[in-house]
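Researcher: Before we compare anything, I want clean individual predictions. No alignment, no superposition, just each chain on its own. First chain goes here; please echo the sequence and then give the C-alpha cells.
Model: Echoing the first chain and its structure:
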Amino acid sequence: MTTTITPLAERMRPDKLKDFIGQAHIVDKNSVINKALANKSLSSMILWGPPGVGKTTLANIISVEMNMPYYALSAVDSGVKEVRKYIEIAGKQGRAILFIDEIHRFSKSQQDALLKAVEKGTIILIGATTENPSFEVIAPLLSRCQVYVLESLNKKELLTLAERAIKTDELLKNRKIKIKEDEALIRLSGGDARKLYNLIELVVDSFAKDPVVIDNETILHYAQQKIALYDKKGEQHYDIISAFIKSIRGSDPNASLYWLARMIEGGEDPKFIARRLLILSSEDIGNANPTALVIANNCFQAINVIGYPECELILSQTTTYLAASAKSNSATTSIKNARKMVSETGDLPVPLNLRNAPTKLMKQLDYGKEYAYPHLFDENFVEAEYLPEKIKGTKIYEPGNNAREKEMRERLKKLWKDKYGY
C-alpha cells in the first residue's frame, strides 16, 4: 500500500502559472492577472468559486511570480490580532501579499482591519471565498478589490490533472496505473480537483499490487464510504443547496428537511442557508403568501444572533413553512418582463405629470402639473397614466394562480377595468 507523507492534492499543487490547469478566462496570456504579473503591478483581489478549483493554488503561484513576502491566514481560526500582526510585518518589509482563505467567514470588524492597509498598498490582499462576495465582503473592502470568478473544472481539465498525477507524482509514477474508464471518476469529482486527487489516491491505496486499473466499477466500489465523508464535510454544498431549494419550491417539506439536515450535519454556514430561504420567499412564493418574506427575514436575523445548535430549530420552522406555503413566481417573471421592456424601449421620458418639481423653473415647464393625488378620490384611486406614452396600457405584472393573487387580480380588474386585461 502506498505510504504518503502529504496528500496527493497537496503534492500536485503547481508553483508556476504555466502549470496551472483551468480558469483560462483569468490566467491565459492576455488576461489581466497574467499581464499584472508580467508588469509586477498586481492589485488586491477576491477569488470566488466552488471548492477545489484552484483559489489557494493561484494565490501561491502569484506570490512566487511576484517574488514578494507572502503570508496566509484562514478566516476560520484567525482574527483581528493576526491580521494586524501581518500588516505590521508587511509595513516593515515595504509590501507583502496576504492571502486569507474563506474570507467570507471574517466579521465586519475583522474586514475593517484590512481596509487601511489595502488602501495604502501595504498589503496586496488575496481573499478566497465560496460565497458571493457581494453579500459576504463589506462594500469598502470589495470596492478596493478586483473580483475574479473561478469555475468548476471540466472533464478535459480533470483528466489532464489525473494523467499528470499518474505520470509525474513522486509516488504514483512508480506504480502501474491505467485509467480504463473515466465516467465515474469525473462524475464523483464534480469539477473539484481535490476530490479527483482524493479518489485516485483512495483507489491506488486500495491495490496492494500492480497493475492498478481505474474503471467505473472500481471507483464506485472503493469510493462509496469516502464520498459520504466528502458530503459530511460540506464540499458538495452547491448540489445539496440546489436539492434543498427545489424541494421547497416543489412543496415537499419532507425532502426539504432531509436536505436541510444534510447541510447541518456537513457544518454548512447557517447564514448561507438562511439567505437562500430569504431569496426563495420572494422568488417562489411572493404575493401568494407575503408573510413568507417576513418569516424568512426574521429567520435570517435570528440566526445572526443564535448559532448552532439552536438555530437549526429556526431553520427547520422556516423551511417547513415555506415548503407548505402556496407558491407563485410572479415576482420573478414580472421583474424580468419589466427589465426586458426597458432593454427594448430604452430610456423613455417620464410623463410631465409624474415629474418632481422642486424649483420654480420646473413648475413653469409643467413638471408635476395635472398630477392627480389618489388619496383625494374614492377608494384612494383615480384612473391615470403612469407609464411612458410609448408603452402605455402594457401589462407587466401577471398575478399568479393562487388565492391571494386571485383577490389581487379581481381588485386590479375592478380598478383598471379593461385597460390591462386583468
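Researcher: Okay. Second chain, same rules.
Model: Second chain and its structure:
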Amino acid sequence: MKSSFVAAIAPKGSHSPITFTMAAIKKGKNQAATIKFMDFLRGPEETRLFEKNRFVPLAGKKKV
C-alpha cells in the first residue's frame, strides 16, 4: 500500500504477543482449497518471509 504508514511502534515487552489464528471450517464449501492454502503458508519460503517480517511462522498440526 502506497498510502500506509507506521503510526506508532510499541516497545518490545510492552504487550502480549499478537496472535493471528487460522482455521478451516470442517464442513466448509472449499475445504480442500483452504487446507492447500494453509499448507502453502507453512512452506519453507513462506516461513522465511514470516520470520523476515518478525512474525512467528505457523505451527501445529492439521486438525480436520
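Researcher: What stands out in the second chain?
Model: Residues 40 and 46 are 7 Å apart (CA to CA). Additionally, Residues 30-56 form one domain.
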